[in-house]
Amino acid sequence: MARFVVAGPSEYLAITGWGIDDVKLAKKAWVWVGQQCMKFNISPENYEFNVQAMSSEKLAFNLPAVFAIGPKISHDSEEALLLYAKLIAPHNHTSNQHVKNLLKGVIEGETRVLAASMTMEEIFQGTKSFKDKVFEQVQLDLDKFGLDIYNANVKQLVDEPGHEYFSYLGQKTQQEAANQAKVDVAEERMKGEVGAKEREGLTLQNAAKVDAETKVLSVRQKGIGLKEEAKVKSEVQVYENEREAEIAAAQAGLAMKKAGWEKQSRVAQVEAVKAVAIREAELQMEVERKNALRLTEKLKAEQLSKANVQYETQVQESNAALYDRQKAAEATLYEQVKSAEARKAQADAKFFEQKLAEDARMYAKQKEAEALATVGKAKAEYMASMLQAVGGDYNALRDYLMIDGGMYQEMARINASAVTGMQPKISIWSNGGEAGAGAMQQVAGVYKMLPPLLSTVHEQTGMMPPAWLGSLPKDGSN
């Protein structure tokens, strides 16, 4: 008997049995005795999954997804349909549930593996790329069963119960937007109020500015020359101080690196020496053990032909000799180990002492460099403040520094020491008149000596006296 079977528009026939080696696919065919025919639908079906996964930070989340999956239709080959037919053949009545369970296992496995290699932020920010990677890996596994993903859609990531990462993240975003809106409103209100005040003040400022600029311009032009000169000198001094500080810092860094390299070299040398000593001790112990075993075997071979009593006696003697040698070897090994430990302790103590010395020298150099930098900075700030205090007058600053530093006293002391032991001609200047009696006369005499004294200082040093102290006498005057 035979029957003619026709498949529907979205169906295929899978025929096996007599006259067919494997499986025959057809849309219509005669089914003969000894053959079996099964219809299967090739329309894609929708499968909904709620995959539970965990990110690399051990944060759990749900990934709702909907897949449209069906047999792969190929015009060139029926291999994919054959794979699908073999997949559903043993489960003809429950094929849909069987395929769903298979797809669930594949999708959950690939999703969990991919999520475990990514952080939650990477998954959330790159949802599209994450979805594409999941679909790509799932499709590779579905190719083995002749299935194809026709469409797929991943819904919004959902928190696991007890893990509110996404909800907190949404609250954070909403709060940030609300705060930014409040800031924008306050900023616009501030701009309006400040703008009105600025317009009122600009009118008064511009009128006062014209009057002030007219008066200041003449005075400013006079001081520009002196200010520029002082500015250049101060910048040169600051630059020199900065270069000295950089040199000191570079030297300190070089010293630190040298100390580190020397430390590594010495540690490597100590480790090499200790490794050699340990290896020598191990080899010596192995040699002693081999010698003892060799002697034991030799004694056993020599005593085999003797009587049992003599044999037992020799065995005892051999055991005693072996025991003595073992004890001697253990004592030698113990001495070598203790000697190695003592050498190691000495090396460690020496290394620690050298390290402390190096640390102390490096710390001293570092503090010296910091002190030099601090002194230079303080001097620069002091000079700048003094120059500003005297209104940018460099000559007045120089005279003040000479007086404050005791330059005139030092010059008097040097002149006095130069004429010690000599018979100098000392002149006392006077205008010949009487300035009064007693203390007032002495004060008048000192005041009369100032012009000649200033002339002498000018001749010896070329320096002019400050304006507040007096001026040099003109030629021919006392």
UniProtKB/TrEMBL annotation:
It is found in: Cell membrane; Membrane, Caveola. The keyword Repressor does not apply. Signal peptide: none annotated. Keywords: Cell membrane, Coiled coil, Lipoprotein, Membrane. It comes from the Eukaryota. GO terms for cellular component: caveola. Residues 22-188 form the Band domain. Residues 278-321 form a coiled coil. It holds the Pfam family Band_7. InterPro entries: Band_7, Band_7/SPFH_dom_sf, Flotillin_fam. It is a lipid-anchor. CDD domains: SPFH_flotillin. Belongs to the band 7/mec-2 family. Flotillin subfamily. This is Flotillin-like. It comes from Oryza meyeriana var. granulata.
